UniProtKB/TrEMBL annotation:
The species this protein was found in: Modicisalibacter luteus
InterPro entries, per database record: Mn/Fe_SOD (IPR001189), Mn/Fe_SOD_BS (IPR019833), Mn/Fe_SOD_C (IPR019832), Mn/Fe_SOD_N (IPR019831), Mn/Fe_SOD_N_sf (IPR036324), SOD_C_sf (IPR036314)
Keyword Metal-binding in record: yes
Organism superkingdom: Bacteria
Coiled-coil residue windows: none
Protein's recorded name: Superoxide dismutase
Gene3D superfamilies in the cross-refs: Fe,Mn superoxide dismutase (SOD) domain, Iron/manganese superoxide dismutase, C-terminal domain
Amino acid sequence: MTFELPALPYEKNALEPHISSETLEYHYGKHHQAYVTKLNDLVEGTADAGKSLEAIIKTSAGALFNQAAQAWNHTFFWHCLSPSGGGEPSGPLADAINARFGSFDQFKETFNTKAVSNFGSGWTWLIKTTDGGVDIINTDDADTPIAHDQTPLLTIDVWEHAYYLDYHNARPKYLDAVWNVINWEFAAQNFS
């Protein structure tokens, strides 16, 4: 099996002005593509060649894990964004967020604080907990909740390549902007 770069679920300019087409050209077209290409190079002719991306993530380490997890994380991330996103969640996901954090505003503040303090390169995730609630976690580098049998609901990429062209080194400004394109429908589907 050869892994392929999945198509974006929207046009490269669809998230403007919050995330520019130039950022997507580099982030998706160069970085994400490089993870997929390197992953294919690493699995070619090995027992991992026939495995799913998720199976590779759960059974590998080192360079293979990093490439597979980054390929998976980025694909997931693109679906966490939508040109018709933003606002607040509703239904059971909103109830779970309010139960855990007290309000949506407090959830956003907590999420942003964790994302800003996520040292170096990584991801900040909203996950479903084993008791049916929600929590916010940071992962470093390529690490991903699915490697730990956790259920991701949404993520924000806080690697610098996700925002440098648009926001330079101002991660807080990027976070403020990205809430305008968060795909709450996708997160709600993952929650259910």
